[in-house]
Amino acid sequence: MRSLSNILYLGIKELRTLARDPAMAVLILYAFTLSVYSSSTSVPETPHRASIAMVDEDRSPISQRLIDAFQEPYFLEPVLTDHADMDEGMDEGRYTFALNIPPDFQHDLLRGGQTSIQLNVDATQISQAFTGAGYIQQIINDEVMVFLQGSGVPSTRPVQAVIRTRYNPNLTQSWFGAINEVINQITMLSIILTGAALIREREHGTIEHLLVMPLTPFEIMAAKVWSMGLVVLVSTALSLYFIVGGWMGIPLRGSMTLFLLGTALHLFATTSMGIFFGTVARSMPQLGLLIILALIPLQVLSGGMTPRESMPEVVQHIMLLAPTTHFVELGQHILFRGAGLAIVWPQLLALAVIGTVFFLFALLRLRRSLA
Length: 371
Known about the structure:
It is a single chain. By secondary structure, the protein is mainly alpha-helical. It is 67% helix and 4% strand. 36% of the residues are buried.
């Protein structure tokens, strides 16, 4: 009971110290509010007022129909030009897209022949070029199909895919980006807060005060783990409820209680990692460098940015040792698919085992550093 009391009061001391640190308070507030919103909406899901030039060598009803199909807010009014101005405009960055409709385009369509339209894309405008080319292709296909149907030319395709999209019918990118950003912030802040708490003790000289007290390294570490983990856990719940679900209007399908349980197990592992980095680093700049080296592979290779199936098998097996891999999978199962305990218990078990190993390893390192 005395040990539990020491852990409790040491944790409260950590919370008070954090409350008196305005930089950390601002970081936590920004990470779970504006950072979640900006990161999930920074990449445009649709082209917006993209500039497009068109060279109409056919001058037919179908070519005029294609010109009229490009309208705001996706595209600016098409600029009718010639080949020389099109190339010059692309080189100068005046046009993001340039469409060249060849001669006899309508004639080839009506007789059922093969024809093509040249689309030039300025890929330096990556935010527009990434999605705009797909939109242009879809607009051309739709307009050609409608034109052929009105002309009595058979336009049926031999195979037609019927797509049914669950959870996110409109494939809104921000729905996925917001959840993944919350998961990334959980990992980042839990490591930063616990590592910074230990470094701060050293820089202020209070670690010596703790060592002369009847306290054990386990109590010192456990206090930092539960207090900083609690801060991140509460921030996560508030962010999901007010920012993701409220401000951004993103539906969360699964049990929030089950997700927070998985978050707590994940924090058990990542806060232990923060303690370990705090024992290795001797200053805040060193801690920042170590965290950057650890966060990049944890976030990129965990499956939140790209599917793990697309990675080399060796990387997939190695990343099974990282808590973020199981946490990303757990979060997607619960929040995207509404999975229950019967589905995600392997991830919960993996997080508990990995967290225990990390905690014991960090505790051993802390004991050696204090000695």
